[in-house]
Specification:
Blueprint (H helix, E strand, L loop, with lengths): L2 E2 L1 H11 L9 E3 L2 E4 L9 H16 L11 E5 L6 E6 L4 E6 L8 H12 L26 E5 L2 E5 L4 E3 L7 H17 L8 E7 L2 E7 L4 H17 L5 H12 L6 H22 L5 E4 L8 E4 L7 E2 L6 E4 H11 L17 H19 L10 H26 L11 H8 L10 H19 L2
Parallel strand pairs: 1-2, 3-7
Antiparallel strand pairs: 2-3, 4-5, 5-6, 6-8, 7-8, 9-13, 10-11, 12-15, 13-14
Helix pairs in contact: 1-3, 4-9, 5-7, 5-10, 6-7, 6-12, 7-10, 8-10, 9-10, 10-12
Length: 449
């Protein structure tokens, strides 16, 4: 058994565990890690045994109940991962089987999620001496229990449910604003998330560590992945023309033109943000604040709980807000967001007033406040609304890569599918991605009006 911290701790554990038994355990960020233990999400017995093994290693317990006494329930709403609730006789946990292979750095994401949860609640060994204040930015009952090769085990928070579009009245919007401000300004960013840059300091060039937004890096990386998918003919040629119409507003373009256009749009947007808002605040952000990732207390008296930080990174705080506003347009059911549901300017102001009030309460303790102009924040949101549509549009199409090929593509129904007029039992990533890209184009056209 070894103890380590940060993303490198997971990599070291895997290297050390080669050719070892799947029960070999290491401790990273104070939580057990089984680097050789893989779980098939279709095998309920394996999920039960894995969650039992991880839970026992975490809290030095001895859960030995028969599998007949354990209930496994598939949790709806996860678009990236497969989620399951495991009910043991005396406790319940959430098992997350990782998806989106290659699109998320799981070592970085899991280490940071552990830091957000703070010192292990029920045991474990924390080599960092993590500050207990870390727990204040997430729900006190939210915890990362441990990790296995292709997923992890988290605490199950009782008496809470996923939010729905109908829940978002002014009270809940205020609650989300407060929780988001706590995340942005109350979380002590781990050193491994800082980037080294050469800057002018007192007339000398010095190498210092800074918080650098990775939003553009992620978008460019996903464009490169999309280029590879197009080159490998993972999409039907007729579908590519529909893709061209969604991204460029015209038909008859090549794969190369699509990729060039996406890169050009990203470069233009990045430059526009830099020129218009050079001092835009950067912090640790969630980046995927949809209704499924917001849990509500059954009584509705407490602030909501934000979960699923797998797309969390260093980015612009107003991108996080704009992305949340985009999620209020829906689309996580049938893949067709309604851009008309984007919050009005007045609703945005109400949200931002609550956000700024909570931010001031936090930063006054550390003496690092600055005056926030709400109209300026709204100006940032207008640009980051476009960034959200661009990023998640590319993500959606990438998730569908390989699903819609010559054998499965139906030209006659494709347009209806993209317009949301044909329902499917499973989530339609392709429809969602193309509609987000269409919304990007609509937002850009509105800028010139």
């Amino acid at each position: 058994m070894s103890c380590s911290s940060g993303p490198s701790g997971y990599a070291a554990a895997r290297a050390e565990s080669r050719n070892h038994a799947n029960t070999t355990v290491h401790y990273v960020e104070g939580r057990p890690y089984f680097p050789v233990l893989n779980v098939d999400p279709s095998d309920e017995k394996a999920m039960i045994e894995t969650s039992r093994t991880v839970l026992n290693a975490y809290c030095s317990s001895n859960i030995t109940s028969d599998t007949m006494d354990v209930k496994v329930t598939r949790i709806a709403g996860g678009l990236t991962n497969a989620l399951f609730k495991i009910d043991f006789p005396n406790t319940s946990v959430l098992v997350r089987i990782f998806g989106a292979e290659g699109m998320i750095d799981r070592d970085l994401e899991t280490a940071t999620f552990a830091r957000l949860c703070g010192t292990p609640h029920n045991g474990g060994t924390n080599p960092n001496g993590a500050d207990e204040s870390s727990k204040k930015v997430v729900h006190p009952d939210l915890d990362m229990i441990g990790r296995f090769a292709n997923g992890r085990v988290e605490s199950w928070i009782p008496n809470m449910r996923q939010s729905t579009m109908q829940d978002f009245d002014s009270n809940l919007m205020g609650g989300v604003a407060r929780v988001l401000a706590r995340l942005h300004y109350g979380f002590e960013v781990p050193s491994y998330l800082y980037k080294a840059e050469c800057r002018e300091v007192d007339g000398r060039r010095e190498r210092i560590k800074v918080l650098r937004p990775n939003l553009w890096e992620v978008i460019y990386a996903w464009i490169d992945e999309l280029k590879d998918s197009l080159a490998q003919d993972k999409f039907n040629t007729d579908l590519i023309q529909l893709f061209c119409e969604a991204t460029l507003g015209r038909v008859g373009c090549s794969k190369e033109e699509i990729i060039a256009s996406l890169r050009q749009e990203t470069k233009w947007l990045q430059s526009t943000v830099k020129m218009s808002h050079p001092d835009a605040t950067v912090a640790f952000t969630h980046n995927d604040l949809c209704t499924a990732n917001i849990l509500l207390d059954q009584s509705r008296d407490a602030d909501p709980c934000i979960i699923d930080y797998e797309y969390g990174s260093i980015s612009y705080t107003m991108y996080d807000v704009a992305n949340f506003f985009c999620e209020l347009c829906g689309g996580n059911d049938y893949g067709v967001p309604n851009i008309e549901l984007f919050p009005s300017m007045e609703r945005q102001r109400q949200f931002l007033k609550e956000y700024v009030t909570e931010k001031k309460r936090i930063v006054e303790r550390v003496g690092n406040d600055r005056v926030d102009d709400i109209s300026q924040l709204q100006s940032e949101i207008k640009l980051f609304q476009m960034a959200s549509n661009l990023m998640w549009g590319i993500w959606g199409v990438l998730q569908a890569s390989g699903e819609v090929t010559i054998e499965s593509f139906c030209k006659e129904t494709a347009k209806l599918r993209l317009d949301g007029k044909i329902d499917d039992d499973s989530f339609d990533y392709l429809r969602y991605g193309m509609n987000r890209l269409k919304n990007y184009r609509i937002c850009k056209e509105s800028l010139s009006r």
